[in-house]
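Collaborator request, handled under Task 6.
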Amino acid sequence: MREQLAQFWEEGIRGADFFMSAIGPAVEVFGRYARVEKLSGEAVTVAELLEYVRKVVAEFALERILRGAELSGVDPLTRFYLLWRWTYNHARVPFDEARKLAAGAGIELTAHWGPGGLVAKDGEHVRVRSPMERAKDPRFAARTEFLTMVDAMHRAAALWMENRSAELREHLSATYGENEVFWQVVQAASEVLPEGDKERQILQGLLAGRRHHRRGPSQLPMWGK
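C-alpha coordinates returned to the collaborator:
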Protein backbone atom coordinates (compact mmCIF):
# COMPACT_ATOMS: atom_id res chain seq x y z
CA MET A 1 0.00 0.00 0.00
CA ARG A 2 2.73 2.46 0.91
CA GLU A 3 4.44 1.86 -2.43
CA GLN A 4 1.19 2.66 -4.21
CA LEU A 5 0.60 5.69 -2.01
CA ALA A 6 4.06 7.03 -2.84
CA GLN A 7 3.22 6.68 -6.53
CA PHE A 8 -0.13 8.45 -6.10
CA TRP A 9 1.60 11.25 -4.18
CA GLU A 10 4.18 11.70 -6.94
CA GLU A 11 1.34 11.89 -9.47
CA GLY A 12 -0.09 14.84 -7.56
CA ILE A 13 -3.21 13.12 -6.22
CA ARG A 14 -4.37 14.92 -3.08
CA GLY A 15 -7.22 15.25 -0.60
CA ALA A 16 -10.28 13.02 -0.79
CA ASP A 17 -9.08 11.57 -4.13
CA PHE A 18 -5.94 10.33 -2.39
CA PHE A 19 -7.99 8.35 0.15
CA MET A 20 -10.19 6.91 -2.59
CA SER A 21 -7.20 5.92 -4.73
CA ALA A 22 -5.76 3.85 -1.89
CA ILE A 23 -8.82 1.62 -1.58
CA GLY A 24 -8.40 -0.08 -4.94
CA PRO A 25 -4.91 -1.59 -4.43
CA ALA A 26 -5.81 -2.79 -0.94
CA VAL A 27 -9.05 -4.46 -2.01
CA GLU A 28 -7.27 -6.00 -5.02
CA VAL A 29 -4.76 -7.79 -2.76
CA PHE A 30 -7.48 -8.71 -0.26
CA GLY A 31 -9.56 -10.24 -3.07
CA ARG A 32 -6.82 -12.66 -4.12
CA TYR A 33 -7.60 -14.87 -1.13
CA ALA A 34 -10.68 -16.81 -0.16
CA ARG A 35 -10.13 -15.82 3.46
CA VAL A 36 -7.81 -13.41 5.26
CA GLU A 37 -7.27 -14.15 8.94
CA LYS A 38 -5.98 -12.41 12.03
CA LEU A 39 -3.43 -14.19 14.22
CA SER A 40 -6.35 -15.32 16.38
CA GLY A 41 -7.87 -17.18 13.39
CA GLU A 42 -10.79 -14.79 13.02
CA ALA A 43 -11.61 -13.64 9.51
CA VAL A 44 -10.78 -10.05 8.58
CA THR A 45 -13.91 -8.33 7.27
CA VAL A 46 -14.03 -5.84 4.42
CA ALA A 47 -15.06 -3.16 6.94
CA GLU A 48 -11.94 -3.88 9.01
CA LEU A 49 -9.81 -3.76 5.90
CA LEU A 50 -11.18 -0.33 4.95
CA GLU A 51 -10.59 0.95 8.49
CA TYR A 52 -6.99 -0.23 8.24
CA VAL A 53 -6.62 1.43 4.83
CA ARG A 54 -7.84 4.76 6.23
CA LYS A 55 -5.31 4.58 9.08
CA VAL A 56 -2.41 3.79 6.75
CA VAL A 57 -3.40 6.55 4.32
CA ALA A 58 -3.83 9.06 7.16
CA GLU A 59 -0.37 8.29 8.56
CA PHE A 60 1.23 8.44 5.12
CA ALA A 61 -0.44 11.76 4.26
CA LEU A 62 0.48 13.29 7.62
CA GLU A 63 4.12 12.28 7.19
CA ARG A 64 4.16 14.12 3.87
CA ILE A 65 2.14 17.11 5.10
CA LEU A 66 4.45 17.56 8.10
CA ARG A 67 7.58 17.02 5.99
CA GLY A 68 9.41 14.69 8.31
CA ALA A 69 8.27 16.12 11.64
CA GLU A 70 8.03 13.53 14.41
CA LEU A 71 4.45 12.30 14.02
CA SER A 72 4.40 10.80 17.50
CA GLY A 73 4.71 14.31 18.89
CA VAL A 74 1.42 15.40 17.30
CA ASP A 75 -1.76 14.67 19.24
CA PRO A 76 -4.71 12.90 17.51
CA LEU A 77 -6.99 15.97 17.38
CA THR A 78 -4.28 18.01 15.68
CA ARG A 79 -3.70 15.16 13.22
CA PHE A 80 -7.41 15.22 12.45
CA TYR A 81 -7.37 19.00 11.90
CA LEU A 82 -4.46 18.75 9.46
CA LEU A 83 -6.06 15.88 7.58
CA TRP A 84 -9.38 17.71 7.39
CA ARG A 85 -7.90 20.91 6.02
CA TRP A 86 -5.82 18.89 3.55
CA THR A 87 -8.78 16.77 2.47
CA TYR A 88 -11.80 19.07 2.69
CA ASN A 89 -10.50 22.58 3.44
CA HIS A 90 -13.53 24.45 4.92
CA ALA A 91 -16.19 22.24 3.34
CA ARG A 92 -19.22 20.73 5.08
CA VAL A 93 -19.01 16.95 4.87
CA PRO A 94 -21.61 14.22 5.54
CA PHE A 95 -21.31 12.89 9.07
CA ASP A 96 -20.35 9.32 8.13
CA GLU A 97 -17.56 10.51 5.85
CA ALA A 98 -16.28 12.83 8.58
CA ARG A 99 -16.48 10.04 11.15
CA LYS A 100 -14.28 7.81 9.00
CA LEU A 101 -11.62 10.49 8.64
CA ALA A 102 -11.72 11.06 12.41
CA ALA A 103 -11.30 7.33 13.04
CA GLY A 104 -8.26 7.28 10.75
CA ALA A 105 -6.74 10.03 12.88
CA GLY A 106 -7.59 8.22 16.11
CA ILE A 107 -10.38 10.41 17.55
CA GLU A 108 -14.08 10.07 18.30
CA LEU A 109 -15.75 12.84 16.30
CA THR A 110 -18.68 13.40 18.67
CA ALA A 111 -16.31 14.23 21.53
CA HIS A 112 -15.18 17.43 19.82
CA TRP A 113 -18.28 19.28 18.72
CA GLY A 114 -20.46 21.71 20.61
CA PRO A 115 -19.54 24.97 22.40
CA GLY A 116 -15.79 25.53 22.48
CA GLY A 117 -15.08 22.52 20.28
CA LEU A 118 -13.12 22.23 17.06
CA VAL A 119 -15.96 20.55 15.18
CA ALA A 120 -19.33 22.03 14.24
CA LYS A 121 -22.32 19.87 13.32
CA ASP A 122 -24.76 21.39 10.83
CA GLY A 123 -27.67 18.98 10.54
CA GLU A 124 -26.32 15.85 8.89
CA HIS A 125 -23.07 17.54 7.97
CA VAL A 126 -19.85 18.30 9.84
CA ARG A 127 -17.21 20.99 9.38
CA VAL A 128 -14.08 22.12 11.22
CA ARG A 129 -14.13 25.58 12.75
CA SER A 130 -11.55 28.22 11.91
CA PRO A 131 -9.57 30.14 14.55
CA MET A 132 -11.57 33.26 13.60
CA GLU A 133 -14.83 31.49 14.37
CA ARG A 134 -13.56 29.96 17.59
CA ALA A 135 -12.30 33.34 18.80
CA LYS A 136 -15.96 34.45 18.91
CA ASP A 137 -17.00 31.40 20.95
CA PRO A 138 -17.27 32.38 24.66
CA ARG A 139 -16.52 28.82 25.79
CA PHE A 140 -13.29 28.70 23.80
CA ALA A 141 -12.35 32.28 24.76
CA ALA A 142 -12.66 31.35 28.44
CA ARG A 143 -10.35 28.36 28.14
CA THR A 144 -7.16 28.50 30.20
CA GLU A 145 -5.73 25.03 29.51
CA PHE A 146 -4.74 23.80 26.05
CA LEU A 147 -4.05 20.10 25.83
CA THR A 148 -3.82 19.87 22.03
CA MET A 149 -1.66 21.72 19.54
CA VAL A 150 -4.59 22.71 17.35
CA ASP A 151 -6.41 24.39 20.24
CA ALA A 152 -3.24 26.23 21.29
CA MET A 153 -2.62 27.22 17.68
CA HIS A 154 -6.14 28.56 17.23
CA ARG A 155 -5.87 30.63 20.41
CA ALA A 156 -2.48 31.95 19.29
CA ALA A 157 -3.91 32.80 15.86
CA ALA A 158 -6.82 34.67 17.44
CA LEU A 159 -4.52 36.66 19.74
CA TRP A 160 -2.20 37.50 16.85
CA MET A 161 -5.12 38.56 14.64
CA GLU A 162 -6.31 40.93 17.39
CA ASN A 163 -2.74 42.23 17.91
CA ARG A 164 -2.77 41.21 21.59
CA SER A 165 0.99 40.72 21.57
CA ALA A 166 1.62 40.51 25.32
CA GLU A 167 -1.09 37.88 25.78
CA LEU A 168 0.23 35.99 22.76
CA ARG A 169 3.75 35.82 24.20
CA GLU A 170 2.33 34.64 27.52
CA HIS A 171 0.15 32.04 25.81
CA LEU A 172 3.02 30.65 23.73
CA SER A 173 5.32 30.53 26.74
CA ALA A 174 2.71 28.57 28.69
CA THR A 175 1.93 26.12 25.87
CA TYR A 176 3.94 25.12 22.81
CA GLY A 177 6.01 28.18 21.96
CA GLU A 178 9.31 26.34 22.43
CA ASN A 179 8.11 23.15 20.77
CA GLU A 180 9.54 22.87 17.26
CA VAL A 181 6.94 20.30 16.18
CA PHE A 182 4.20 22.79 17.06
CA TRP A 183 5.64 25.32 14.63
CA GLN A 184 5.94 22.61 11.99
CA VAL A 185 2.23 21.97 12.50
CA VAL A 186 1.46 25.67 12.05
CA GLN A 187 3.57 25.70 8.88
CA ALA A 188 1.88 22.58 7.52
CA ALA A 189 -1.60 23.92 8.25
CA SER A 190 -0.84 27.15 6.41
CA GLU A 191 0.52 25.26 3.41
CA VAL A 192 -2.45 22.95 2.90
CA LEU A 193 -4.88 25.88 2.78
CA PRO A 194 -5.40 27.63 -0.58
CA GLU A 195 -3.87 30.95 -1.58
CA GLY A 196 -5.95 33.90 -0.39
CA ASP A 197 -7.56 31.93 2.44
CA LYS A 198 -7.88 34.09 5.57
CA GLU A 199 -6.95 31.29 7.95
CA ARG A 200 -3.83 30.66 5.87
CA GLN A 201 -2.88 34.34 6.03
CA ILE A 202 -3.31 34.45 9.80
CA LEU A 203 -1.21 31.33 10.34
CA GLN A 204 1.50 32.71 8.07
CA GLY A 205 1.45 35.93 10.08
CA LEU A 206 1.78 33.94 13.28
CA LEU A 207 4.82 32.19 11.82
CA ALA A 208 6.33 35.51 10.76
CA GLY A 209 5.78 36.86 14.26
CA ARG A 210 7.58 33.94 15.87
CA ARG A 211 10.89 35.82 15.93
CA HIS A 212 9.18 38.61 17.89
CA HIS A 213 8.02 36.08 20.46
CA ARG A 214 11.60 34.89 20.83
CA ARG A 215 12.90 38.43 21.29
CA GLY A 216 10.34 39.22 23.96
CA PRO A 217 8.83 42.68 24.37
CA SER A 218 8.74 43.91 20.75
CA GLN A 219 5.43 44.51 19.01
CA LEU A 220 4.03 41.71 16.90
CA PRO A 221 3.10 42.71 13.34
CA MET A 222 -0.61 43.25 12.80
CA TRP A 223 -2.60 41.04 10.44
CA GLY A 224 -2.42 42.26 6.88
CA LYS A 225 0.71 44.33 7.43
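The cover message to the collaborator said: "The first strand starts at residue 93 and ends at 94. DSSP finds twelve helices and three strands in the chain. Please let us know whether this matches your experimental observations."
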